[in-house]
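Q: What residues go here?
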């Protein structure tokens, strides 16, 4: 019996190999004016400047036409997009990831708002089963990339302050305990990577240390903590500030608070929602200058991102989106964003941030903050074959994940 055409193709030299040439390679460490990159599903094989090396027969070749090529974007804090929520089951997860991929995001953390402990466990189990299947399919050379790209899960609640609830249900908030963290971690099956926590809550510092020892990232957020309490959280093992300025005290000349505590600590990565709504641009520009190299652009997007105005749900709370701004229905409380990460990147460049630094804030900085710098966020051999091709105005013209083209406007 003869092999199928697909089987024959997979055994040919160069089958499954991708060459992108005539591109400007840009990441946190390099800016190569005329470069090329060779990759396959396992990752980047080689890259360089000038003359392209001899490539195997059957290699897919993409002409970059001098455009910028960067690593795939990493969104470490997002709740959904395209009408799909990350707490809405596998179909909604796939919808949201497909939408964000169209905007250059090749890897995402799935952020969940506050729910009951039982509901969190159920959602974590569902996401873990879905993510395990996608990882298995990718290993089997799956032809369906839409559901791939999950880095892990971020629990933005329930360990947050009712005084800075934002778009979270106060009735479902809880004090953190190591036992509850362990319950969530077990339900997440290894996919739970990040908690947001208010360090002033009873048991918070012990819980931060407990989670950090397991490799789970802890971020200070939705908090009324003062400077000293925030510094204690960082000393206990927290390494992130969740969406700086939002749902926390601002900077006061006699009460510096969590923002100054994070700026003072080189161990801390600082998230920023750069949509002009959550943090206005002059403040964002000052923040960027104060923490060069450790600012991570995030979207904190909810399901309306890339979808449009209307009525939505964020967890179990009703949200109304008007003119691209999401509020809890009937209130002036901001309920996530409708931001896409490519738009945040363009806004950063508009602030005067250099191209390499802006790219880093959406790639290598978030990847490193999650302990994933060995695989994601830079252009180097051994890194995932995740790429974005950008047009002259820094709009997305091509997206590749694991060496496969996901979107092209070539």
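A:
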């Amino acid at each position: 019996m003869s092999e199928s055409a697909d089987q024959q193709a997979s055994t040919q030299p160069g089958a499954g190999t991708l060459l992108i040439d005539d591109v400007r390679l840009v990441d946190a460490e390099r800016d190569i004016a005329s470069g090329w990159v060779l990759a396959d599903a396992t990752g980047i094989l080689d890259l360089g400047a000038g003359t392209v090396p001899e490539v195997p027969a059957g290699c897919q070749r993409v002409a970059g036409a001098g455009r910028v090529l960067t690593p795939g974007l990493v969104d470490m804090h997002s709740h959904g997009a395209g009408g799909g929520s990350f707490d809405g089951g596998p179909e909604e997860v796939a919808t949201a990831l497909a939408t964000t991929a169209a905007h250059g995001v090749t890897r995402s953390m799935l952020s969940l708002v506050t729910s009951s402990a039982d509901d969190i466990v159920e959602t974590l189990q569902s996401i873990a089963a879905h993510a395990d299947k996608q990882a298995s399919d990718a290993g089997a050379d799956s032809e369906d990339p839409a559901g791939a790209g999950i880095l892990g899960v971020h629990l933005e609640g329930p360990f947050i302050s009712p005084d800075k609830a934002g778009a979270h249900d106060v009735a479902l908030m809880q004090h953190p305990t190591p036992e509850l963290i362990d319950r969530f971690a077990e339900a997440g099956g290894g996919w739970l990577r990040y908690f947001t926590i208010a360090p002033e809550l009873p048991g918070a510092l012990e819980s931060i240390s407990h989670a950090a020892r397991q490799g789970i990232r802890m971020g200070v957020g939705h908090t009324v903590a003062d400077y000293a309490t925030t510094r204690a959280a960082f000393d206990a093992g927290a390494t992130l500030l969740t969406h700086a300025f939002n749902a926390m005290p601002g900077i006061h000349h006699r009460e510096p608070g969590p923002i100054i505590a994070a700026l003072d600590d080189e161990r801390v990565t600082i998230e920023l929602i750069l949509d002009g709504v959550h943090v206005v641009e002059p403040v964002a520009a000052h923040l960027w200058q104060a923490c060069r190299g450790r600012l991570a652009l995030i979207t904190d997007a909810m399901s309306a991102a890339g979808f449009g105005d209307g009525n939505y749900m964020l967890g179990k709370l009703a949200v109304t989106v008007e003119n691209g701004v999401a509020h809890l229905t009937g209130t002036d409380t901001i309920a996530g964003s409708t931001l896409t990460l490519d738009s945040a990147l363009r806004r950063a460049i508009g602030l005067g941030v250099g191209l390499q630094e802006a790219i880093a804030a959406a790639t290598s900085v978030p990847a490193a903050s999650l302990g994933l710098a060995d695989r994601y966020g830079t252009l180097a051999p051994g890194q995932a074959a995740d790429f974005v091709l950008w047009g002259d105005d820094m709009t997305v013209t091509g997206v590749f994940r694991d060496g496969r083209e996901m979107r092209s406007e070539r």
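A: Context that may help when evaluating the design: The two ends are 40 Å apart (CA to CA). The longest strand covers residues 31-40.
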